[in-house]
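Q: C-alpha cells for this one, please.
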Amino acid sequence: MRSPASPEEVDSWLRSHGWHPDLHNRVEADRLIDARVRDSARQDFPMAPWGAMREFVSRYAGLEFPAPLAPERVFVADPTLGYEGDAEDITELSAEVGRKLFPVGYEFGESGIVLMDDLGRFFYLHHTGPYFLGENEAHALSSLMRGDQDEVDDYCV
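A: Here is the predicted structure, written as C-alpha cells:
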C-alpha cells in the first residue's frame, strides 16, 4: 500500500461532500447500528457494537464520499448495507484477524463492506476477498479516497 494521503487532502475530500469536524449524527448512527445488530442476529451470527465504532459511524452517517479518481466508488457510512450471509463472512474474518469486527460502512461500485476492529483498524470485505484499509481512521479514509487496499494476510493471527 502506498503512503496515505495527507491530512489536508483527506479533510478537503470529506468537506467537499458535506462533512465537518463537529458533525455527530448519533441518532441516525444508533438507528443504523441497531438495525445491523438485529440483522446479524437474524443471520445467526450476532455482532455487538462498541463506543469507538459508534462514534465513527456518527461522524459520517448520512453522507456519501465518491473516490476522486473513480467516482463510481462511493463510501457510505451505513453499516446496514451488505448482502445475505455477510454476518457469517464477517465472523470468519473476525476469527482470522483475532479481533472483534463490526461493519461501519459500504462502498458502492465495488460492493465492499468496510469494517472496523476493536483496535481501531479498518478492513474491507469484497467479493474477491478481505483486504486491509489502515491502522486507524485517517489511513482508512485515505485508502477509501484513493482506492488503496492491502492484502489482509499480514494482519491475521
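A few notes: The chain has five helices and seven strands. The beta strands are 64-67, 70-76, 101-108, 112-117, 122-126, 129-134, 150-151.
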